[in-house]
């Protein structure tokens, strides 16, 4: 791990995406940098080692990138949390509101066993709707969400308030 690493140098601002008036914090430059991506993965693995997690759930699509690497590094199972129609077999779903529309998330019905401790991973927490829906979905499946991990948190949008008391950890905030 590199002490004093400035991850914000690897986050690009894209105005008016996906809609006019939205400032998108793009993590792609961090993914393109072996140093930045490695720092993120190593930092998270160190934090969650010995945390008592049974499985890691990654929210489509960028949550897959970090969640799957973290699952590998910690020798845990990975649960893909996807948009409708993307998973084979029987699924359960949860619909929710975004800051610019509505969406639905799904997991396979057998992805979680009763009582499993789940860490949810995504790249960004804005209003908290996506993370809250994922937590509700995983809880309805029998899991127990012990924390939500977001690489970036947009604090002005107060997404933490939507998480119903589930702890949130973020690497950086704006």
- Runs in which pLDDT lies below 50 for 5 or more consecutive residues are none
What structural class is derived from the secondary structure elements?
A: alpha/beta
> How much is the radius of gyration in Å?
15 Å
Tell me the count of domains.
1
Distance between the termini: 23 Å
Percent of residues in beta strands? 25-35%
Q: Please summarize the sheet with the most strands.
A: 5 strands, parallel
Q: What is the CATH-assigned architecture?
A: 3-Layer(aba) Sandwich
Q: What is the count of helical runs? A: 4
The average pLDDT score comes to 95
Shape: globular
Structure in a nutshell:
By secondary structure, the protein is of the alpha/beta class. 26% of the residues lie in helices and 34% in strands. The strands form 3 sheets. A 5-stranded parallel sheet has the order 4-3-7-8-9, sandwiched between helices. Strands 1-2 form a two-stranded antiparallel sheet.
């Amino acid at each position: 791990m590199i002490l004093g690493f400035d991850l914000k140098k690897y986050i690009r601002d894209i105005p008016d995406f996906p809609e006019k008036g939205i400032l998108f914090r793009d993590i792609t430059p961090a993914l393109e940098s072996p140093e930045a991506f490695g720092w993120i993965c190593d930092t998270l693995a160190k934090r969650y080692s010995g945390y008592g997690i049974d499985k890691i759930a990654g929210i489509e699509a960028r949550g897959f990138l970090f969640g799957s690497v973290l699952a590998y590094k910690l020798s845990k199972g990975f649960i893909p949390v996807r948009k409708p129609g993307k998973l084979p077999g029987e699924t359960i779903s949860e619909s929710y509101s975004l800051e610019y529309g509505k969406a639905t998330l799904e997991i396979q019905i057998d992805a979680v066993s009763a009582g499993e401790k789940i860490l949810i991973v995504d790249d960004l927490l804005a209003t908290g709707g996506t993370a809250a829906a994922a937590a509700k979905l995983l809880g309805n499946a029998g899991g127990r969400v012990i924390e939500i991990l977001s690489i970036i948190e947009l604090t002005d949008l107060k997404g933490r308030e939507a998480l119903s008391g589930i702890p949130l950890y973020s690497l950086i905030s704006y």
